[in-house]
Amino acid sequence: MDLALALRWSGCRVLASRPRQGKAASRRFTGALAAKSANEPNNCYDVVLVGGGFAGLAAVGRLAKQRVHGRKLRLLLIEQGRGLGGRVCTRRRETTEGPLAFDHGCQYFTAKTSQPHFSDACRMWQDAGVAGAWHAAVGKLSLQGIGMEDAIFEPFDQSKVPLVGIPSMSAIGKHIIREAQDGQNDVDVLTSSKASDAAWDDASHLWTLQVNSEPVKTSVLAVTTSARSCVRMLGDACPSGCEASKVKSNVCWALLVASFKPLTCQPDWDAALVDGSSCFAWVSRNTSKPSRPKPPAPECFVLHTCPEWSNPRAELSKDEVRKLLLMEFCRQFGCQNEAVVYAEAFRWNNAFPLNPLQLPKKCIVEPERKLVAGGDWASGDRVGDAFESGVAVAVAVLTLLNA
Ligand SMILES: Cc1cc2nc3c(=O)[nH]c(=O)nc-3n(C[C@H](O)[C@H](O)[C@H](O)COP(=O)(O)OP(=O)(O)OC[C@H]3O[C@@H](n4cnc5c(N)ncnc54)[C@H](O)[C@@H]3O)c2cc1C
């Protein structure tokens, strides 16, 4: 059996048994977690959280600060992606023309007055230097024909300045975990690891999950994935008629494109909802965000497709979609094909919940089986909704542990 290594990774502890071997290899673990997941209840986690997006991060950040009955909690956050942040993330690429950065999911966030925890967190992230204002011209872009010459841009009235992660969207997730690991409790983080087959045992009152084919046990299970992943992960343990199974979501394709020449018509916008395009719903000049690579590095754009275009093309390959969308970008936005130094298509399978549950409690709680579930879908469809739901998950978990 391999001995697990406790790695320091960007200031946060990640458990892994061996270094990643190639892009697709997942980080398997055995030693440390296997020891903790032995049969005695004292040797398992108090709380396992599945899903390291903003809901999971908000939950783990809150739980890291609380002891229960004066006792240290043992927490484990499991994330299937390589990094934390979920749909709030940045893709970096190196090219011979210079470094590139694309925020290919969430574009920016603002806190509503009805989101007190998220408002406080945004202020703290700004103070810590991991979030900052994006003084951007954001509005509606009406494409009138081909090549941008006649496009009309109408800026939105923005009561709040958009915020972004500094120097990348991923910085906020790393910051939250650093703080959590400096807190009262033991916080383990496992990335590149998929949790599946959750099963509740009535006799021991414990959950067992399969994580990279290894069993992990926990007293409380908190699921902070998308609604669809939550239902899939719980499998047979998902109660019939479970509310999460009612949430529908859209597919969204993102085009990440970098050009070393400006568009033929230099835009007066930084980001816009696109009107009059057969495929694009959103365009953003990623380069205009603070702390992103600036010229002479190539200019980076992120485009999102509309559901009418994405949903019927959900099964196309990334390469097919890249070719189709790049051709449309060059045609509709007046970009010279030969100036493109990089293009990539990325598919968001559960981009936005179409019918979020808007639960008053912002999460689902099943006290008998010590199961809590949340995410944007439980309360809305934005980052702030995910964060508030994550805080509600933490509060519910603490109530279960204190009972
Ligand atoms: C293209 C796009 C643009 C957006 N733009 C904006 C915007 O501008 N402003 C805004 O406020 N919001 C925006 N959003 C919405 C916002 O990103 C989401 O509402 C929010 O990030 C959701 O957070 P979450 O934690 O609920 O879910 P997620 O961020 O999806 O996190 C869930 C995590 O669970 C992980 N996971 C799933 N299954 C498993 C498993 N079995 N084991 C381990 N891990 C698992 C996933 O990998 C993921 O990291 C956008 C979303 C998309 C897709």
TrEMBL record:
It comes from the Eukaryota. It holds the Pfam family NAD_binding_8. SUPFAM superfamilies: FAD/NAD(P)-binding domain. PANTHER family: EXPRESSED PROTEIN, FAD/NAD(P)-BINDING OXIDOREDUCTASE FAMILY PROTEIN. This is Amine oxidase domain-containing protein. It comes from Symbiodinium pilosum (Dinoflagellate).
